[in-house]
Write a structure and sequence with these properties.
It is a single chain. The protein has 164 residues and is an alpha+beta fold. The protein has one domain (3-121): Gcn5-related N-acetyltransferase (GNAT) (Aminopeptidase), CATH 3.40.630.30. It has helices spanning 12-19, 22-25, 36-51, 98-113, 128-136, and strands spanning 3-6, 55-61, 69-77, 83-89, 119-124, 139-146, 152-158. A hairpin with a 5-residue loop joins strand 6 (139-146) and strand 7 (152-158). The N and C termini lie far apart (31 Å). 27% of the residues are buried.
């Protein structure tokens, strides 16, 4: 069973473990491996955004596993004043439905914390697994663009949570 909890300043080592995995950062930002300094700086910025009320970060673990780290979910106000959602899964956890499971847990919290703000996510066009995960979680593709870091991405927008 996956346990999800708010990320704190004490979680820098778990964040760093994900951020220094080239398989994870290949789909984040410029797509290049991160240095420890880059990872630490991003963690500090994320914790600061949470402290200002402009973001929410969660860590996911399966405590009963020998390697319990599942991943990280980030929800931050982005440069478009939307809530950008990011899912970082430990490579050994890929393909097990954990991304959908985590989105099911955190999206209602994000919508409550940031009412009226659109949850969005971006997936590199050459990473169909991310697109499938987002679509299965109720996100809809909203066009392809060159992202902030020069990579071609598809923008996804979370669907309406209320049934029609």
């Amino acid at each position: 069973m996956i346990h999800v909890r708010a990320c704190t300043a004490n979680d820098a080592a778990d964040f760093r473990r994900l951020a220094l995995a080239p398989q994870v950062t290949a789909r984040i930002g410029v797509g290049a491996p991160w240095s420890r300094a880059t990872a630490d700086a991003r963690f500090r910025r994320g914790m600061a955004a949470c402290g200002r009320g402009e973001g929410m970060w969660w860590l996911a673990h399966e405590p009963q596993d020998a390697d319990p780290l599942v991943g990280l979910v980030v929800a931050e106000v982005d440069h478009l004043a939307e809530i950008e959602i990011g899912i970082w899964l430990a490579p050994g956890r890929w393909g097990r439905g954990h991304g959908r499971e985590l989105l099911a847990v955190v999206l209602p919290v994000v919508r409550t914390r940031f009412p009226g703000v659109t949850p969005t996510a971006y997936a590199n066009v050459d990473h169909p697994a991310s697109a499938r995960m987002l679509t299965a979680s109720g996100f809809h593709p909203d066009g392809t663009l060159i992202g902030r870091y020069g990579t071609e991405v598809t923008r996804f927008v979370a669907g309406d949570p209320t049934p029609t």
